[in-house]
Design goal:
SH3 type barrels; 6-stranded antiparallel sheet; 5-stranded antiparallel sheet
């Protein structure tokens, strides 16, 4: 009877707690069930007090957890707000970028080359017409007219005809342009010094030509970014004569360029910054033969074949360390692969290729010669195709492309045969 009365009191305590709206966890109920009732030394009143105390402790614990959860939620909301702020900032930057692109890209009727590698520009709207230029993937052009599957276009210094089916046009082209246009540094002097660091006291890295536009890797320089760049990429020699404090104060007047996977700084005083699409490049077939007039007839034929073969890979991917002309190659892998096709061995690296080729002067340059570039030592190589142009595996962004032979100051011009 006493045991039954005790159980009734315990049960009543539980019911009371529940009725009062006190949260009862499984642990609290288990605590009640696990209390031994036989031979109990405490009075039933004391026991009920213990039960209610346990309930209160559990309530306090749950309340504490709820408060903690609210704090964490608040923190999460702060993070979300921060992320939202980042997104807004990113959105504003994107809008500013698109605004600048629209201001820079002035085409009456925009067309963009929709090809994996390159698109031939011909003198007339016919498959058999002479090739006068080439457009790589995402090259922009102004569409002058369209007739019978051919578009008359103008891009850079090239004016000719391309197959209409390989052009993105209209609103789709305008949307595409916003994605693929890149910020370029347009050189406004005949030659321009670029430097290891954003300071005129820094050593000269290379000299650039006004014949080429150069990709801007980073427009807005910060002290943190520049310090990290120096730590990763610069030797003590590059910084020894530079007043670092003055350099950091003047960062707004410099930009970082990316040329052939090499990074260098240039002053804004000598360039203009514009968003641009790739432009078509001029190809003059006849210049290849005329520029080889100093060589024998058989060699002239080989040189012409070498250039024609190399041009097949225009627009293909650049892969550092790669040697595949179709699936990806770097600069020396490209020249090695081209000459290997004709039975001529070249070493694997650009520096080694420079060491094993015979030096020639710029006045004696001919098709098939190799142009070597770098800062102090050779780090890049290209194949001369005539008309003052080279073809080379440049970087991940541009792949295998055609450039002015003097877009950088060559360290050496080498002849293989």
């Amino acid at each position: 009877m006493r045991k039954s009365y005790a159980k009734l009191l315990v049960g009543g305590a539980v019911v009371f707690a529940a009725a009062a709206g006190l949260p009862l966890s499984v642990q609290a109920i288990n605590a009640i069930e696990e209390k031994p009732l036989a031979g109990i030394t405490l009075s039933l009143d004391r026991y009920c007090e213990n039960v209610l105390e346990n309930v209160k402790e559990e309530e306090a614990r749950i309340k504490e957890e709820e408060e903690k959860a609210k704090e964490e939620k608040g923190s999460g909301e702060t993070t979300i707000a921060s992320n939202s702020s980042d997104k807004e900032s990113s959105s504003e930057e994107q809008k500013e970028r698109e605004k600048r692109i629209k201001l820079n890209l002035k085409y009456d009727k925009l067309g963009i080359a929709d090809v994996d590698t390159y698109l031939n520009v011909r003198a007339r709207g016919s498959e058999g017409a002479k090739i006068i230029g080439k457009m790589v993937k995402n090259t922009g052009c102004n569409i002058i007219s369209e007739k019978k599957g051919w578009s008359k276009i103008e891009s850079g210094n090239v004016k000719g005809y391309v197959k209409s089916e390989y052009l993105i046009k209209g609103e789709e082209a305008e949307k595409k342009a916003l994605k693929v246009a890149t910020l370029k540094a347009v050189v406004e002097t005949e030659t321009l010094n670029v430097r290891f660091l954003p300071s005129t006291d820094s050593p000269i890295y290379d000299q650039l030509s006004e014949d080429e536009d150069y990709t801007v890797e980073r427009e807005k320089l910060t002290k943190e970014f520049t310090a990290e760049f120096i730590k990763k990429h610069c030797s003590k020699k590059a910084t020894e004569n530079v007043n670092m404090d003055e350099m950091y104060k003047d960062l707004d007047n410099w930009v970082l360029l990316s040329i052939d996977n090499e990074k260098m700084f240039v002053s804004k005083d000598f360039i203009s910054l514009k968003y641009k699409l790739n432009r078509a490049v001029t190809i003059k077939e006849e210049s290849r033969k005329s520029s080889s007039s100093n060589s024998s007839s058989s060699n002239s034929s080989i040189y012409s074949s070498i250039v024609s073969y190399a041009m097949q890979f225009l627009g293909n991917r650049y892969v550092w360390g790669g040697t595949s002309l179709t699936n990806g190659t770097d600069c020396s892998g490209f020249t090695m692969g081209i000459y290997s096709h004709f039975g001529y061995y070249l070493p694997r690296t650009s520096a080694a290729q420079a060491a094993t080729t015979r030096s020639v002067s710029s006045g004696d340059v001919r098709v098939g010669d190799l142009f070597f570039y770098g800062s102090g030592s050779v780090s890049h190589v290209a194949l001369y195709i005539g008309n003052g142009q080279i073809i080379h595996a440049s970087n991940e962004r541009d792949g295998i492309k055609i450039s002015s032979a003097y877009y950088r100051k060559p360290l050496k011009i080498g002849r293989v045969m």
